[in-house]
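Possible regression after last week's pipeline update?

I re-ran a chain I had predicted before the update to compare outputs. Posting the input and the new output here so someone can diff against the archived version. Not blocking, just want to make sure nothing changed silently.
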Amino acid sequence: MPEGDTVLVAAARLHAALAGERLLATDFRVPRFATVDLSDQTVQEVVARGKHLLLRTDAGVTLHSHLKMEGAWHLYRPRDRWRGPDFQVRAVLRTEPWVAVGFRLGICELLPTAREHEVVGHLGPDVLGPDWDAAEAVRRLGADPDRAVGTALLDQRVMAGPGNIYKCEVCFLRGVDPWTPVGQVDDLGGMVDLLKRLMEANRASGRQITTGDTRPGRTHWVAGRNGRPCRRCGIPIRKADQESYDADRVTWWCPTCQPGPGPDRRPRTTERQAPGGRPSLRSARTSGPRHGGRGAGASGRS
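New output (post-update):
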């Protein structure tokens, strides 16, 4: 699942292959830009901004892409066969040495470079970017004390780059239930510092390894481990959906190592205002084994 470190690695690879190269042909397979041709423009740079990719040309044009949940950029030599179905292709950039192909891009659009702020200006400090400001990230994280910390950590307006895996892993390592209100978390600065260190450790690989163990099945503490024993206490890891700033996200947590309010089991949906005035939907859906209150408090979820 692409997160900020994954996108940083993708940007570095695209930059190394395309920067300074003249575009021989382009093909944008999205209706709005299907007739646009960037041929003869030269790629100046490819940079990451949180989870966003920005490819800039010498004509003042930016190709803005976002991988969302399943997107990827591939690089091929001109005669190579593409490793993916043609119907999933959203963008093709041809240069003399390389062909860059964007598959399943959640966002693929062109805009003047001078207007990039319209698509990334809302983002908070980039955890892996030159604009990183830990104090500002902590301030934004704590701005809504009633908000669940797991929801706040995924809000790209708070910090740009963290995704669902880092949210779950950081909450586990700090012993915090993801449904704990931000105002009740003892050390937001420590949580932000740990998130930064974990992402920095993966910035060269983009693999989101949080345990230090690269072997298959051993890379995470709780993420993706529903029903398997907690690496600390042995209680089965649980999962449930948690509200995010844009859509619900599956959250994994240990009900013993992360005591707290847990997900609300009452079937309800209510609308509330998210930061920025946009209504967001709160829902309650859970799955996983129950364990008769062994350290789980009211319930557990992450």
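Follow-up from reviewer: compared with the archived run. Helices lie at 4-18, 117-120, 134-141, 149-154, 164-173, 188-201. Marking as no regression found.
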